[in-house]
Every structure is written in C-alpha cells, then in structure tokens.
Amino acid sequence: METAGQNTKQFMEENDVLKQFMELLNQQNMKEQSQDFMGIFWYVAGMQVQLSAMVDELQGVREQLSQREDAETEVINRGHNGYTAFQMRQRWDEDCISLQPDVLTILAGINDLSIYLCGAGGYDGEGFGIHMEWLLRETREKTGARIILMEPFLFPKPAEYLNWMEPLGTFREPLRRLSEQYETEFIPLWDVFQAAQSQYPADALTTDGIHLTALGHEMIADEWLKAWRFGKRG
To answer: 72-101, pLDDT tens digit by residue?
Structure first.
C-alpha cells in the first residue's frame, strides 16, 4: 500500500511541468526569486502541504523571476506534527517573530478539534480563537508580515468524522472573524474541499480524512497562489 508521501513523490516525478518548474528554481539557485512571489510559506499544525504541480502558473513564475532578478526568497516550513494553537504560542518567537517573515501562512485547528473531542484536554472553539488571536496580534505588532490564514477542513472518511463536522464549525468561525479583524487574506479550504467532492471521491483528495493526497496538495497550492495574487478570499 502506497503512503501519501510515496504518492506525492510519484506525482512529482511524473509531472513534466512541475519538473520544469523545479529545474527553473534550481537554475536560479533560489536567489533570483521575488520575496513577493513566494514569500515564506508556512503550513502549520502537522500537515505537510507541497507547492505541487502549479501547471497553470508556470509561465507566471517565469515572468516573476525575470522581473526580479536580484531578489532573494527563502521558503520555511515551521509546522510541528500534532501541534495545537496553544503549543504554537510556546514557540512563536522562535518559529515566527525571530524570522521576520515577509509572508506568513497559517493552517491550524484540526489538532485542536481532535484533542478536544477525544477528551484529552485542550480547548473548545472559543479557546482556540483566543490562542489564534494572540498569534495574530503578536505577528502584527512585531513583524510586517502579510498574513494568509487557511481554514481547517475535514472529510467524511472514516465515517466517524461525520460527527466532527458540526464541532469543526466552532473552530472555523473564529478564524473567519479574526481574518476580518486583523485584515488577513483568508483561504476558505472548507468550501474548497466541499466543492471538490462534487467532482472527486474523497479517496482522491485525502488519505485518512485529514491528510491530503497529491491532488489535495495541488488544490491548496492553487488556492494559495490565488490569495497571494488577488488578495482576500472567503
């Protein structure tokens, strides 16, 4: 049985356009990319999202790089497997503030929901919102980062996750409110994947109801680029 990581590796190896994209970045030695183009892409709360298969974006990538030949870009992933928003607070100075990112992307909430529903302590949606607001306030006060918030999502696989859908709404709502309050970009991944399930079976998008397949990763990469290019969504 193939793992999600193996599926992603195979997808990358078989995708000619992605190969061209990666070769282009290698030719640039990661030093001629624009900070405004990719920024610092963080995927938090234990998920490893790749900027995979940006098929329709390759020409735009070429144009961005050619226009900003002397700019430097560093992409950093400071996500920690299984972390909750509360745990993120404990490392925020090290993982965010000290790095002074130009662009900060946060995806959190599913780990918080899981711990809360399983009776292992943690915080409900309101408590989650309090911790997320602390992270956003610290970032606004101590950095000049452009912030992109991504909404947590869940698939009905296994079936027991159907019972998580309504509680998840209480974790999603604070993020939408905080996005407005702190004027961040917002990627409504719940809506994105709900719509995607009208075109694809859940198995094509997720390996276990939470973690994504290569196709799911590709969808997030596409939505992130839309948010970066065109501003707030949701």
So the answer is: 667 788 888 889 999 999 999 999 999 999
